[in-house]
Amino acid sequence: MKGAKRLWLWFIGVNVALVGVILYSAMAPGALTKTMLLPGETSHGHYQIEMRCDVCHTEGNGIREDACLDCHAEELRLAKDTHPSSKFNDPVNAEMLATLDAQSCLTCHREHVQEQTLEMGLTMPSDYCYHCHQETLESRPSHANFAFDSCATAGCHNYHDNRALYENFLNKHASEEDFLAEMVGLVRPEKTPVFTAPNKNTAGLAAENTADISAEITADAPETFPSDPVILEEWASTAHAAAGVNCSDCHAPLTVSDTSTPNQPSETEPTWDAAVSHETCGRCHEQQLETFLQGHHGMRLAQDLSPMTPAQARLPMHVDAAHRELDCNACHTGHRFDTTFASVDACLTCHNDDHSNAFLQTSHFQAWQSELAGDSPQGSGVTCATCHMPRLEDDDGEVWVQHNQNANLRPNEKMIREVCMHCHGLAFSIDALADRELIRQCFGSSPSKHVESVDLAQSWFEEKERQKEARRKKRQSK
Ligand code: HEC
Ligand code: HEC
Ligand code: HEC
Ligand code: HEC
Ligand code: HEC
Ligand code: HEC
Ligand code: HEC
Ligand code: HEC
Ligand code: HEC
Ligand code: HEC
Fold first, then answer.
1. Which residue, of 407, 441, 458, is where some domain finishes?
2. In terms of residue numbers, what domain contains 308?
3. What pLDDT was estimated at residue 6?
4. Which domain-ending residue is among 275, 303, 322?
5. pLDDT (average), residues 296-303
6. 391: DSSP letter
7. I want to staple 127 with a disulfide (CB 3.0 to 4.6 A). Which of 141, 148, 324, 388 is the partner?
């Protein structure tokens, strides 16, 4: 009798659970039902946003026409794409499309087909260059013995981005030393405060929590707010206070009209919000916000999904960081906004792969320690951020920090011009980036690979020069 009762209870339990699951998937169409419809695992580049089927798919599950270019056009433009679809509108090249439709991204980048997906979302065997470039093997004696699956291997050519690999560039930088005479990158200028605090409606805000700071600014946190000496001290000693950015500039709640104009706490809204969102930071740091939203750290926020967390990552992460949310304050913690901490220590609170962990043993890290100690010039150190969030110079000569850590990650030759060539020669940089084992050790020793492209380019130009010279001599002797 007892057994039957237990069976019944079990039966009821299972049914309740089942109904629960069905109800849940009906009520929360986001998660469960959507993943069930996925034909296979989504690629490394997109799995974070796979829940947003609609950014790529039409209602009928086709692919939206401009989906890929909506998000990637700018990147390919900056990469000076070697094979844009416009190249194939030219009748001379158009016939190539008969064998391989290079005007459609999907020819080479399909989705949810994990078993045939290579690096960078490539779903095409890597020897296809053959279809259009057969003649190269004939016209270039040096290439006669090359296999077609080697064209696009590290260090030789890329399909889209050849900014550091085209012949004239290779030749021009052929004779550079491995270590340049002057090894310094860009320096972030000491900013003189440029921010003028908007005319704030200070209703509800009182000048109670006074902190003694040079910029003669008084903290404007609400009177009822228990003044926290640590926060006051941290805020008062940093660029924000110096620039006149006050508590309320970050902590007054955003209202709809605030998102485009400087902060104006309204009288009807509450005047304090303890949580500060990336959008608040972005009102004053537009470029940083925009680029942050483009990479793996911010791409979920860009699609109105919950923030990325280490728990959702496919790369190895520290277990105790699993539920930390990727927002601006993931790296800019506390009220110090300490860029030294953000450049290495912050990264290592989450990242836990061989490459990241090896960094502290490298000569790059030593160079950074030496810069911090004041023993070598500013800009001579190398941090995680030097490579992954490089300082860039915009058209007005203004130095700012790229916050999309995927912008130069793959193919990794994107790092050459932006990063390595501040300090190293081109050939050395190409060799180092083609060496997977060296990357795993975070560049802790010299490259053990040698890519021939610089040598080939140099001898190609020398040969052309010799031919020209011979023709000139011939003409002269006539
Ligand atoms: C980043 C873009 C992207 C996102 C996001 C995305 N997909 Fe896809 N999906 C693709 C691409 C590209 C293909 C391949 C189309 C092709 O081969 O013609 C595809 C193929 C499919 C197919 C197979 C269709 C067929 O005709 O073979 C299904 C089913 C599918 N996706 C479902 C989903 C669902 C469900 C979601 C959301 C949970 C989703 N996809 C999210 C890009 C995406
Ligand atoms: C909603 C915006 C969005 C759409 C739509 C989208 N992508 Fe992406 N894609 C991203 C982001 C964000 C990344 C990750 C950051 C990066 O690698 O630049 C990415 C990464 C990639 C990568 C690099 C993968 C890697 O592992 O390095 C490729 C290739 C790519 N996308 C191709 C496509 C193609 C082809 C389509 C059209 C089917 C497409 N994307 C549609 C946003 C998008
Ligand atoms: C004929 C094959 C082919 C086609 C067509 C193609 N790609 Fe690629 N794509 C590649 C290869 C190969 C890579 C790997 C890196 C490389 O060689 O440039 C790549 C890499 C990428 C990347 C990674 C970052 C980068 O800059 O290389 C993105 C993003 C990308 N493709 C987007 C697109 C989009 C968007 C389209 C359509 C407009 C497209 N691709 C069409 C072959 C192709
Ligand atoms: C669908 C045909 C097609 C495919 C496939 C193709 N290419 Fe090309 N490629 C072209 C065309 C067309 C040009 C432009 C030629 C020109 O302007 O003289 C070009 C130009 C180039 C250039 C620049 C040459 C220069 O000096 O301007 C490089 C490098 C290159 N391709 C490499 C590759 C690699 C590597 C692959 C394979 C990953 C590949 N291509 C696949 C059609 C193709
Ligand atoms: C540049 C923007 C910025 C300024 C200026 C700023 N804060 Fe904050 N504050 C933040 C951020 C970011 C957080 C963390 C919020 C979160 O975790 O969501 C925070 C959190 C807090 C918290 C709650 C969390 C904690 O650490 O206990 C208090 C209290 C606080 N701030 C007080 C102040 C006071 C007082 C001032 C002025 C002296 C001030 N803040 C100025 C950005 C700012
Ligand atoms: C009301 C405008 C404003 C807001 C809101 C704001 N900042 Fe700033 N921030 C500034 C100004 C002005 C400077 C100093 C000049 C500069 O570096 O551009 C600055 C400097 C910085 C610096 C450089 C510090 C240094 O030591 O060089 C960081 C990092 C920073 N802010 C991050 C943030 C983050 C993260 C948030 C959001 C939590 C935020 N800011 C919110 C105006 C603002
Ligand atoms: C992955 C870590 C990380 C995240 C997330 C991050 N930052 Fe930064 N940020 C850094 C590092 C590292 C530096 C300093 C790099 C250097 O000195 O070269 C920096 C520098 C800055 C600076 C000063 C330099 C400049 O660009 O003028 C500002 C302002 C800034 N960040 C704002 C933001 C804002 C706003 C967000 C959120 C949208 C954000 N950061 C998110 C790591 C991060
Ligand atoms: C709060 C945790 C956290 C912090 C802090 C953090 N990251 Fe990340 N990072 C992540 C997560 C999560 C991903 C996404 C991993 C994935 O998609 O598998 C990621 C992705 C990346 C990627 C892209 C990897 C790829 O294969 O596409 C790079 C590069 C990276 N982070 C570098 C850094 C650097 C440099 C810093 C410090 C300036 C940093 N991260 C700080 C959690 C963090
Ligand atoms: C000298 C430049 C350099 C430095 C310094 C550096 N990295 Fe990298 N990192 C690279 C290169 C190159 C790659 C490989 C990109 C590729 O080819 O996929 C890489 C890859 C990564 C990846 C992606 C790994 C994967 O498997 O997809 C992460 C995450 C990362 N780095 C984080 C960090 C962190 C955190 C630090 C500091 C502790 C750091 N890196 C220091 C150059 C650097
Ligand atoms: C700001 C300058 C700077 C930048 C940028 C830089 N490096 Fe270095 N690199 C150095 C210094 C300094 C050393 C140590 C030289 C020495 O030992 O005398 C070094 C050493 C190396 C070594 C040899 C390590 C050893 O212990 O033998 C490799 C490999 C290397 N760098 C690769 C790279 C690559 C790849 C990039 C670009 C992604 C890069 N570096 C960017 C300054 C830089």
1. 407
2. 291-407
3. 63
4. 275
5. 98
6. E
7. 148
In this structure, the answer to whether residues 243 and 310 fall within a common structural domain is no
- Residues 311 and 255 reside in one and the same domain: no
Ligand 6 neighbours, Cβ below 6 Å, are 191, 195, 239-240, 243, 245, 249-250, 276, 280-281, 283-285, 328, 332, 337, 339
Question: What are the DSSP calls for 343-366, one per residue?
Answer: HTHHHHHHB-SHHHHHGGGSHHHH
Phi then psi dihedrals of residue 371, to 5 deg? -65, -45
List all residues 6 or more positions away from 288 whose beta carbon is below 8 Å from its beta carbon: 281, 282, 328, 400, 401, 403
| pLDDT tens figures, 41-56 | 999 999 999 999 999 9
Q: At 393, phi and psi to the nearest 5?
A: -110, 125
Stated pTM of the model: 0.93
Residues 257 and 328 grouped into a single domain: no
What is the percentage of the chain residues whose pLDDT exceeds 70? 83
> What average pLDDT score do residues 73-92 get?
95
- Is the pLDDT at 8 greater than 70, yes or no? no
Same domain assignment for residues 338 and 380: yes
Distances 89 to 67, 85, 96, 97, 103 between C-alpha atoms, Å: 21, 7, 11, 10, 9
User: Which ligand is located closest to the Cα atom of residue 325?
Assistant: 8
Placement of tokens 């001898």 in the chain: 459
Q: Within a domain: residue 171?
A: no
Alpha-carbon gap, residue 119 to 100, rounded angstroms = 20
Q: Is 51 helix (H, G, I), strand (E, B) or coil?
A: coil
Same domain, 335 and 300: yes
pLDDT, tens digit, 9 for 90 and up, residues 57-71:
999 889 998 999 999
Q: For residue 95, how far is its CA from the centre of ligand 5 (angstroms)? A: 61
Quickly count: other Cβ atoms within 10 Å of residue 365's Cβ.
19
Indicate if 365 and 266 belong to the same structural domain.
Answer: no
3 state DSSP class of 374: coil
Cα–Cα distance measured from residue 272 to residue 249, given in angstroms and rounded to the nearest whole number: 10
The torsion region of residue 61 among left (phi > 0), alpha (psi -120 to 50) and beta comes to: left
Residues 301 and 399 in one domain: yes
Is residue 300 in some structural domain? yes
Residue nearest to atom 15 of ligand 8 (CA): 313
Q: Is residue 334 part of a domain?
A: yes
Kindly identify the ligand whose nearest atom is closest to the C-alpha of 402: 7
Residues near 428 by beta carbon (within 8 Å), at least 6 away in sequence: 176, 178, 179, 420, 447
| 393 beta partners | 399
Compute the average pLDDT of residues 439-453.
Answer: 96
For residue 169, tell me if it sits in a domain: no
Q: Is the CB of 443 under 6 A from ligand 9?
A: yes
Q: What is the pLDDT of residue 331?
A: 97
> How many domains in the chain?
2
State whether 322 and 248 are in the same domain. Answer: no
